Amino acid sequence: PHTVPLPPDPVMQGRIDADFRSIDLAVGGPGHAFAFCRKHKVEKCQGCNLDFTALNQISKILVTNPNLRCPPPPNVVQQKLSQAVTNTKDEGNKLYKLKNCKGALAKYNLAANIAAQRPPWESSAVLREELSTVISNRSTTLFELGDYLGALADAETVITVRRDWPKGHFRKAKALLGLGRLQEAQEAISLGLQFEPNN
């Protein structure tokens, strides 16, 4: 026996209709699975106020993983990816301890790139944890290489991703000291200590 679907909730349908706008898009790429602005043939078009980046990211994951019929629940974490991030970061830590900062920097860059490959449906907490640790280590490595501006940029990224982690504020203060910006360094330390006063 066939069941007749219930009509949509009129209030919900009204909200959907109010938000709906027709978009003139083109499809292309492998399997014609990627969306682009039809007029300018780009993924992110400022002129037409269109951004298909997130949609194409999901599409790429689904195209390159044909056995993945639908995204798994967000509490499922790719252990192989986490292990790859950890192993690469640990290799960087070993090189850093051996005073091979350029080698460590390469490993931290690789670990950050691996972490950034995490699918968008996984818990963002995992990505925040992995990225903040790797970028924090990269910040201190850049500091040791004399790239204080790069160290500051990474420290700012760590704070953006994980504001309540004192280590990010410490890295920022250290980079600011390297740049000779003592007052700002003191402010960064003070802010970090608010999250962990006994540190």
Automatic annotation (TrEMBL):
**What is the organism of origin for this protein?**
Paxillus rubicundulus Ve08.2h10
Protein name per Swiss-Prot or TrEMBL: Translocation protein SEC72
Q: Does the keyword Repeat apply?
A: yes
Keywords (alphabetical) are: Repeat, TPR repeat
Q: Which InterPro entries match?
A: TPR-like_helical_dom_sf, TPR_rpt
Q: Name one GO molecular function term.
A: Hsp90 protein binding
